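Re: duplicated header lines in exported structure tokens

Our pipeline writes sequence and tokens for each protein into one text file. With two proteins the header for the second block appears twice in some exports. Here is an export where it did not happen, for reference. First protein block:
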Amino acid sequence: MSQRIKSNKAKRSRGFTYLWIAALAVLTFLLIYFEQTSLLYILATLGVTVLLVIVATADLGQSERSSETPMSGPPPSAAKARK
């Protein structure tokens, strides 16, 4: 039963995502149509800034766990065969 609830929540979330995409596309079209490119430029700059802040504050704690595991690369015998 819990899988069904998770599935419905994922579908609802996907619907909201499509709604956001449609709304932003209409807003962009209207700003271009009414020649408000200065406002569009400001909104685009703020959007990129927010995206960069989100990426900068992302949880990078996962990288500590990955440093404990050996790097994936060719096996030592393959590296010797190349030389």
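Second protein block, exported in the same file:
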Amino acid sequence: MTEQPAPHGPTTTLPPQSANGTSAQLPPSPPKSGPTHTRTSGLRTSRIAGAAGALVMAAAGTVRITQLRQMVRRDRRNPPTS
């Protein structure tokens, strides 16, 4: 048998091929676990923060307007006695 030249690039540690051309199946590799790191640009982060802030302010404004309308309705039904 002749030696095969070493492959270029990264090498792996696979078992040698058997004489009849088949090799045993490799066991499945365990799933990778651990923290996932993502990179977010400053522009994207500021847009997300701005959108979240706008939603919070819209919700707070809606609640306050509802409260004021309830107060006005209540005062119309029961006028103050003087």
